[in-house]
Amino acid sequence: MSGTKEGSFPSPLPGTPKPFQSKHKMEQSFLKEMGLEWSTPLSFLTLGQLVEVVQRCINAKPSKQEKREYIYGLAGIQREFGVSHKCAQAWKDGFLAPAVEQQGKVIVIDKAMAHRLFKESGRNKK
Predict the structure, then answer these.
(1) In this structure, what are the phi and psi dihedrals at residue 30, rounded to the nearest 5 degrees?
(2) How far apart are CA 37 and CA 115, in angstroms?
(3) How far is CA 52 from the centre of its chain?
(4) For a Cys-Cys bond, which of 1, 28, 60, 121 suits 95, CB 3.0-4.6 Å?
(5) Could you report the per-residue pLDDT of 51-103, keeping only the tens digit for each?
């Protein structure tokens, strides 16, 4: 093969998909420890390398992601906190603002953050 170094894999033809690129540092680090890259073809792995990669993938603990809950719209604020429409509007623009994301008419509020902000605001004292 002309144009490729011995032991290197030829570059893909135009229009072919690029090799998978991982965004996870842990996965990239263990491949580097083994002297591999994501673009290394499976046929270039020894049996020992393949077994080690598979074992690490099987034993890898899934990342613990919190399931976020959301409140939708002013009606959601009204239901969640038991307030009037006018009060919900004032709260959305006031102390709840960091928890609110709004695109046009669509309002989405991070529920956990809204409750934390509510407690910090001191409005829950009677």
Answers:
(1) -70, -30
(2) 45
(3) 27
(4) 121
(5) 888 888 777 766 666 678 899 999 999 999 999 999 999 999 999 999 999 98
* Residues 6+ positions from 118 with CB-CB distance below 8 Å: 81, 95, 96, 124
User: Which ranges in 5-66 belong to alpha helices (H)?
Assistant: 25-33, 47-59
In the structure encoding, which two tokens stand for residue 117, read together?
A: 């902000």
Query: What is the residue whose two structure tokens read 């690490």?
Result: 56
Is the pLDDT reported for residue 108 higher than 70? yes
**Sign (positive/negative) of CA torsion 19, 20, 22, 26?**
negative
Q: Which residues contact 22 (CB under 8 A, 6 or more apart)?
A: 28, 38
Helix, strand, or coil (residue 72)? strand
Task: Please give the model's pTM, rounded to 2 decimal places.
Answer: 0.48
